[in-house]
């Protein structure tokens, strides 16, 4: 027996938190009857419906994708732009959705799954999952400015911060007395705000020319080519879950 909201999340319909709202709103039926009690438990033999549609009992699957720039982190787009699920083979029958998001102009590691509870574990701030980005910016950044990024910058009413920051490379143009050049900076985030990395650098007066997510939790892109994907191993999935349990406060 499992809690109803957990069963809904596992089916891939939505996250556990949203599933709880669906239950409270009377949008969920168990064996033909509306259920609004969050503590309700169901078995594998029970028939669960959300908005009059019966849940399909899919086996959970997990993929890593190297998202290219110019692709939307969604399953559909109202402007008919390419989305991450367009990059998947037709042989994948499960209804997959992205775990969190990467901006349109950002490339890198993104996970796809049909497991709503797993998704919630990875994107909710309380689980403190590391998301590591490498940014190429215009100008030569100072170490003191990295400290500002770690302390937090307020932008559009939101406090944006990283947990780690380091300069990987900086290159001053020859013959220039000013600090004209480029910097390569690695940031580790737990937050997942819209355009967060770009907004943080913009607040310091820098423009992000290229941005890629290199790592998510214990997973790294490795040699996975742009636009390609691979299935996570059971061990990798267990590691991610264990890491989220370890980080939660």
TrEMBL record:
Gene3D superfamilies assigned to the protein according to its UniProt record, in alphabetical order: Alpha-L RNA-binding motif, Pseudouridine synthase I, catalytic domain, N-terminal subdomain, RNA-binding S4 domain
EC number: 5.4.99.-
Example of a GO biological process term: enzyme-directed rRNA pseudouridine synthesis
Alphabetical list of PROSITE patterns matching this protein: PSI_RSU, S4
InterPro entries for this protein: PsdUridine_s_RsuA/RluB/E/F_cat, PsdUridine_synth_cat_dom_sf, PsdUridine_synth_RsuA/RluA, PsdUridine_synth_RsuA/RluB/E/F, PsdUridine_synth_RsuA/RluB_CS, RsuA_PseudoU_synthase, S4_RNA-bd, S4_RNA-bd_sf
GO MF annotation list: RNA binding; rRNA pseudouridine synthase activity
Pfam families: PseudoU_synth_2 (PF00849), S4 (PF01479)
Superkingdom of origin: Bacteria
Top enzyme category: isomerase
Location of the RNA-binding S4 domain: 2-59
Keyword tags: Isomerase, RNA-binding
Keyword GTP-binding: no
The family this protein is said to belong to: Belongs to the pseudouridine synthase RsuA family.
UniProt-recorded name of the protein: Pseudouridine synthase
Organism: Allobacillus salarius
Origin organism lineage: Bacteria, Bacillati, Bacillota, Bacilli, Bacillales
């Amino acid at each position: 027996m499992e809690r109803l909201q957990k069963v809904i999340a596992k089916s891939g319909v939505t996250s556990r938190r949203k599933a709880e709202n669906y239950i409270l709103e009377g949008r969920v039926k168990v064996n033909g009857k509306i259920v609004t009690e969050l503590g309700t438990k169901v078995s594998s033999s029970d028939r669960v419906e959300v908005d009059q549609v019966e849940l399909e009992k899919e086996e959970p699957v997990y993929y890593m994708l190297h998202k290219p720039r110019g692709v939307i982190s969604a399953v559909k787009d109202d402007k008919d732009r390419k989305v991450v699920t367009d990059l998947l083979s037709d042989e994948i029958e499960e209804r997959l959705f992205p775990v969190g998001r990467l901006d349109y102009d950002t490339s890198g590691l993104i996970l796809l799954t049909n497991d709503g509870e797993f998704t919630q574990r990875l994107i909710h701030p309380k689980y403190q999952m590391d998301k590591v980005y490498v940014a190429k910016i215009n100008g030569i950044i100072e170490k003191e400015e990295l400290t500002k990024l770690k302390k937090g910058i307020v932008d559009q009413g939101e406090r944006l911060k990283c947990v780690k920051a380091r300069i990987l490379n900086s290159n001053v143009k020859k013959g220039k007395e000013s600090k004209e050049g480029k910097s390569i900076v690695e940031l580790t985030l737990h937050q997942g705000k819209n355009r967060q990395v770009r907004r943080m650098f913009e607040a310091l007066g820098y423009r992000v020319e290229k941005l890629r997510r290199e790592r998510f939790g214990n997973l790294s892109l490795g040699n996975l080519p742009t636009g390609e994907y691979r299935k996570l191993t059971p061990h990798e999935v267990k590691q991610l879950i264990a890491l989220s349990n370890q980080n939660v406060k």
